[in-house]
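Data deposition worksheet. Section B asks for the primary sequence of the deposited chain exactly as it was used as input, without tags or linkers unless they were present during the calculation. Section C holds the resulting structure in token form. Section D is free text for depositor observations; keep each observation to a single sentence. Incomplete worksheets are returned to the depositor.
Section A, Depositor: J.P.
Section B:
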Amino acid sequence: MNLGAFLLPSLTCAVCLTWLALQRNRIAATESESEVLRTRLTSHAASASATRASPEQPEDWTSIARRYSKLRSVDRQKLSDRFKSMTSGEIADLLEKISKQQPTAHPPSLLYALISHLAETNPQLLLEKFIHVLINNPHSIHQFSDALLRWADDDLTAAIGWYDRQLADGALDTKSLDGLGLNMSGFLEKLIPALLISDPAGAMDRISTLPSAQQRATLRRSASSITEAAQASFAKLIRDLLPPRNQASVLAEPVGSILSGGKLEDVSAYLARINATTVEREAAALAAGGGEVDKIIRSRPILRTDIEAIRHWAVSEAPET
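Section C:
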């Protein structure tokens, strides 16, 4: 037997096995080091994100306020989530602190985010404590009327009372803020229909606080919320406040909401209730005719008999239409 021929392959095989074992050990060590590095990086990233987005210490908020505009959207969302875990009092305290350091509530900013959060969660607190921040800041003025609307949804009487006190005290006498009248109209749109039942004179007083250019738009938008009990008062308000050329078109605005849940005969009852003039009847008949056609074609094809019925009704209400 040739021993050399046997040993050479055996030694070669042993060397290969030893080399493979060393390589496996090196790979295992490398993988272990990589896992440690990944763990450290993940921990560092999580720590950095928590520092950016979920500051636990009060002094961190000052830093957040300075860097807020540069935060990623995901980090701003984390801050928003943190707001939800805070009480309204804590948010108010933080808002007061930041408003002194960062008086301009431009979006995106921490001050703007805090105002938005409190306007949604506790509008009464926002208005009672921070009205000066809202009405004297062009970037947050719209949140004034938004907060009033939300408060009115919860407690209309309290919101009206607070609003009246601010007017009486002169807190809302801000003629330099061109946007105030526009934004107040949103609140008045909700307020007017309720006041037309309980205090028609008060409705007149409040709508009169708006610039003339806003009065018609506000009344037009509030028309869809006018109840049957308030229709006569609504008509009187329109006739007393608006110039004659604008009255008929605004008085025709409730027709759409009447038809949405009723029929042409209900429009006739509305016109009788407000003692409509010839011009007002013509405007209402035109609005009702178009509204009735739209209502029919949303459910089925319109027929010649439908057109004839609408025409007959319109002629009966406004012969010259």
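Section D:
Confidence is low (pLDDT under 50) at residues 1-8, 10-17, 44-58, 174-178.
The longest helix spans residues 3-53.
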